[in-house]
Amino acid sequence: MKNSAKLPYLIFFLAIAFVVSCNQGNKSKEEETILKGSASIYVDETLTPIIEDQVAVFENKYEAKISLISKSESETVNSLFNKKGVIAILSRNLTPEELEIFKQRKINPKITPFGTDAVAFVANRNSQNSLIALNDVISFMQGNPVSSIKGLVFDNLNSSTVRYLKSLAGIKTIPEKGVFSFKTNDEVIKHVSANDGMIGVVGVNWLSQPKPDMQKYVDNVNTLSVKGVNGDNYYLPSQNNIAEKKYPLARDLYIINCQGYSGLGMGFASFVGGDIGQRIILKSGLLPVRIPTRKFTITKSQNDEK
């Protein structure tokens, strides 16, 4: 009888414990809003400098903490599929095949285009040549000798720059000779600055926004002007040439948000695509999706009135 009398109380306390446990389990998600909380974002390493700038301003403006995880393009994309990450920043959109995988998982990624950058070629400052033809680069990637190219230096064999040039060259594997890789864009710039004849392949924002300790290496390389496959003129990867679609190696940038709820992924994407974020893109030398408006105040001086 005594045990029977205690049974309702036991069930009551178990129910309370279950509710408390569920609330604690959902606590982290409840604490995160579009402008508050913490989140991890995987970013294509070639885009790290501009995203670091965006994160610094975002964190200063809101009660948010974003942990940037800088990886190769392949690792960044895989973070979404192996569920290590739910927010990624890439220099390409998801493919139809990748979108189908998310569809099968009943996930609808929110994709936000936010700017355009470029793949840049750099050579040692002592190099006599400041020009390079994209056809020569493609031929070299196909395994053919090119007198003007001693070697191509990439940041990582799984990087977006390698994937980009492999796509242009129509190849699945890179040649065994003449192509070198390191781990980061900084290492590429350092190697080229010390080795005449080598051509580095980097994201252009590593040149426009170098870290203080990298400035001396960036100063010791030249950014090469590029002639497109069907073009006659050579163009630098300047903001103006990217905007006018003259530079042949421009690429659009995207934030891929797979959170599935109103979290920091949504807030950060809105920030980067908004007025402040677009101004940061513009100031960096890259091309924003939309040019921020400028307000002018026109006043009459005393001389105008006379």
UniProtKB/TrEMBL annotation:
Residues 37-272 form the PBP domain. The keyword Signal applies. Residues 1-22 form the signal peptide. SUPFAM superfamilies: Periplasmic binding protein-like II. Keywords: Signal. It comes from Flavobacterium xueshanense. It holds the Pfam family PBP_like_2. This is Phosphate transport system substrate-binding protein. It comes from the Bacteria. The keyword Aminoacyl-tRNA synthetase does not apply.
